[in-house]
Amino acid sequence: MAEIKITQKRNNSTEIVISGELTIYCVMEVFQQHFQQINLKELTLFKLGNISEIDTAGVQLLIMLMKLVKEQNSSYQIASLGEALADYSNLFQLNRYFIDFEEISVSTSAKEEELQ
Amino acid sequence: MSLDAVLQTFYVEAQEHLESMENVLLKMDEGECNDEMLNDIFRSAHTIKGSAGIFGLDHIVNFTHVVENVLDRARDKKIAVEKDLVDVIFKCRDHIQSLVSVNLEEFTAQADLQKIDKDLLEALTPWASEESNQAVKQNTSPTENLSEHKPTDDEDNGKLWHISLRLSGDCLRNGMDPLSFIKFLTSLGEIKHIETIVDNFPSSADFDAETLYFAYEISLLSDASLEEIENTFMFVQDDSDITILPPSAKIDDYLSLIDKLPEENQRLGDILVSCGSLTKHSLEQALISQNKESAEAEKPTDTHKLGQLLTEQQKVPEAVVNAALSKQQQSKSQATEGKQIRIDSNRLDNLINLIGELVINQQRIDLLSKGSKNPPLVEAVDDFENFTNQIRDAALSLRMVPIGGTFQRFKRLVRDTAQELGKEVELTIEGADTELDRLMVEKLGDPLTHIVRNAMDHGLESIEKRQAVGKNIKGQLKLSAYHEASHIVIAISDDGNGIDKERVRAKAIEKGIINSDSQLTDNELFHLIFHPGFSTAAAVTNLSGRGVGMDVVKRNVEALQGSIDINSQAGVGSEFKIRLPLTLAIIDGFHVEAKGTHFIIPQATIIECIDLANHQDIKARHCINLRGDMIPYLSMSEIFNLTPCQQHSIENKVIEHEDKRELVIVQFGSDVAGIAVDSLHGEIQTVVKPLGPIFKALKGIGGSSLLGNGEIAFILDVPQLIELAVGNEIANKVSAAEDISNQDK
C-alpha cells in the first residue's frame, strides 16, 4: 500500500511524496482520497524516490497527476525517482514524463536536498 | 474475467497442450516424424512458456524455454529426432505437467522437483548445445549453408514487426498488466521502440484509476512467427484491438492502421516513424498522395489504391506480402469459423439440473391439464411437452463428449507399461468419436486403466512365450467404443493368453470364495475376478496383482448404472465389455406401480409388456413360458417387501401377491427377465436424482425421481434386477432338483 504525504508550502508550491507500493490494489483509493479534490499551487514537487513497486495502474496515476498539474495551470518538478519507476519509464519510453519533461527539471537526490 | 479465471484458463489450455505434446511424442516414438509434428510440439511448448510468462510462473518459463530451444533446433534440422531424444522429451513433458501443477513458491520449496528439473536440463544438454549441430550440418549441402547467410542489416529489416495495442479498458482490473506482455515480447526478440500513447486519458473528474488508458505502438525485431506473437496476447485478444503488421507489410497496411486507430492521423504517422516502422519520407509521400487522390475523387480516401501505387513504387515483393497477409487472415478466419466457446462445466451441470426441474414441472402441468378436460389447454401442454423434450435433448447433448480423448491417454499408459514389463504391445483404437456423458467419461478413467493394466500384465504373454506359441511378438490391445440400443459399449480386448479358468477356480477355492464342489458356468467363473481380494498373479507388481483393482472396476461401472461382461478363450485372448447408459441425468422411463409404490423402468431396457394372467406361470419358479422361451421374473412387492399403503393403494383395495397381472419384459445385454407389477402408467420423462449413501446397499434401485403429482418414484436398476432374477432362477432350479431327488428317495 502506498503512503501519500501532501504538503502545501509557503513558497507557493505543493509537495507530493509517494512511497511504498503503488499498484492496482491501491490506486483507486489513493486517487479518491488524496488527489481527486486536490488544489495545487504554482509549482508541484513530486518526490517519488521511495516507490518500491509500481505497475501500469500506478504509472497511469502519476501521469494523471501530471495532467492535473496542467489542468490547474501548475508546473511540476520531480525531485526523486525510485528504481522501480525509472525501470518502468525506460522500458515504456515514458522518460518525457519522468525524466526529460518540459522545463528541464530533472532532479537528482542532490537537487532534492537543495530544494528541501 | 478475474485473474483466477484467467489462470484457470491457463491451466486448462496447458493441459490441452501437454496432451497434444504427448500425442505427437507417441507418434514419434513409433518412428513417425515430419515437419508438421515438430511444429505442433514446438508450438505447444512455446504456448505453455508464453502463457506461463504472462503469469510470472518463471519456473515453467525457464524449463520450457530449454525444451523449446531443443525442439526449435530439431525443427531447423540442426539435430536429428532420435529415440533417445524422444524419451527425454517425454520426461520433459511429464515434468512440465508437474511444474504446471505448482506455483513458483511451491516449486522453490520442493527439492525433488528441482532435482528433476536440473537432471532433465542436463539430459537435454547434448541436443541443446551448438556442438550437436555439426552432425546434421555435415549432411547439409554447401548451397543450403550459403542461402542461410544474409547481411545483418537486411536481416534486421526483414524481422521488424509492428504491433499496435489498444487493450481493453478492463485489462488492469482483470489482472492483466501490459507490463507482462511487453516483458514476454522481449523473450521473442528485441523491442526497438515502444510508444506509450496517453491521448485517451480523460479529465481528472472522469479518471478511473483501475481503467487502462494507455495505448501502445511497438516495433519488435524478432524471428518469431505471427502465431507466436499473437499468442502473447491470447488472454486479452477477445476484447482488445490488436494489430500485428509483419515485417513484409505494405505501406498501405500502415495507412489502414492509421485510419483505423482513434488517434489523429498525423500524430500516429509520427509515432510509426519514431518506432522505425516507417520512414519519414515514405509517410509524407503516402499521406500527400492519399490526400491528393481523395481530393480529386471528392470521396473518402481509398487507401487500397494508394497502397497498390506505393507497393509498385517501392517494389515490395507482392507474393511475400500476400502470403503473410493471407496467413494472417487465415488464422483470424479460423478463429471465427471454429465458433467454439469454453464453458465452466459447473454451469452446464446447473443448466441440466434446471432442465430437470423444468421436466418435473412440465409433468405437473400435463397432469393438471388432463384433469381440466379442456382440449385447447391439453393441446397447448402437448406442444409445451414437445419443446421441453427438445430442450432436454439439446441440453444433454452439450454435455456429451467423444470418448476418444480418454482413449488417447491410454497410448502413453500402454507405451510406459510395455516398457516396464519388457513386452511389445500395439494399441488400436476404434470408435473414438463415440459420444458419452462427460460425467461418465470422467469416472471411466480408473476402471479402464485397471483393465488395460491387467490385460498387459496378466493377459498378454511375454515376447518369448508369444514366440514359442507362434504368435506375433507384438501383443495386440484394442480399445473400442460403439452404440448398442441406448447404451454405449466400451470393449477392451487383447490377443493374449485368455483367462485361465482352472487357475481362477483354484484361487477362488483357496480364498474361500467358492466351495470345491461348486458348479459354475464360464461367465460366473470369469466374474470371480471381480471379487474383492481376488488375484491370480503369483507376484505382486506395481501394475497389478494386488487384488484391489478388478473389484473397484466392477463397483465403478455399477455406480454408473452399467455392467461388465467378460469373454475369454484360452490361448486366443480376452474381451471386457463395459455397457453403460448414454446419460445419467434425464432418461425416458416407463412408470409402473406395485402395492402403491411407484417405480420407473428405463424405457431403453423394455422389450414389451404382457398380461401375466394370459401366460403359463411355472409354479414356485417365478418363470413364465413366453412363446417358447422360459423367462424368469421378479415380483416388485416380494423383492422390496412392499406392503400395501392405505393412502396410495387403489381404492383401498389390498392387492394380493396372486393379483399381480402385468409383466414388463426387460433386456440388458443378452439377458432377458420380467418385472411383475400391479399396474402400468405409461411413458414418462424421468429426472434421475441419486439416492443418498445410506441406500447404497439397496440392490435393484438406481435412483429416485419426482413425479408430476409430487410423489416419489424409484428408478429400477435393470442390470442388477436381471442379475437377481437369473440368480433366483438358478437357486430355484437347484432346489427343484433337490425336491425331485428327495421325492425319488
Can you describe this structure?
The complex is a heterodimer of chains A (116) and B (745). Chain A has 116 residues and is α/β, with parallel strands linked by helices. Chain A has a single domain, classed as STAS domain (Transcription Regulator spoIIAA). Chain A has five helices and four strands. The two termini of chain A are 25 Å apart. Chain B is α+β, with helices and mostly antiparallel strands and 745 residues long. Chain B has five domains: 3-148, Up-down Bundle (Four Helix Bundle (Hemerythrin (Met), subunit A)), CATH 1.20.120.160; 152-338, Alpha-Beta Plaits (2-Layer Sandwich); 345-399; 401-581, Histidine kinase-like ATPase, C-terminal domain (Heat Shock Protein 90, 2-Layer Sandwich), CATH 3.30.565; 586-740, Beta Barrel (OB fold (Dihydrolipoamide Acetyltransferase, E2P)), CATH 2.40.50.180. Chain B is 50% helix and 19% strand. A six-stranded mixed beta sheet of chain B has the order 14-18-19-17-16-15. In chain B, strands 6-8-9-11-10 form a five-stranded mixed beta sheet. A five-stranded mixed beta sheet of chain B has the order 20-12-13-22-21. In chain B, helix 4 runs antiparallel to helix 6 (111-128) and helix 14 packs across helix 15. The longest helix of chain B is centred in the middle third of the chain and has 28 residues, at 345-372. Residues 132-155, 298-338, 538-548 and 646-658 of chain B have low confidence and may be disordered. The chains are: A alpha/beta (116), B alpha+beta (745).
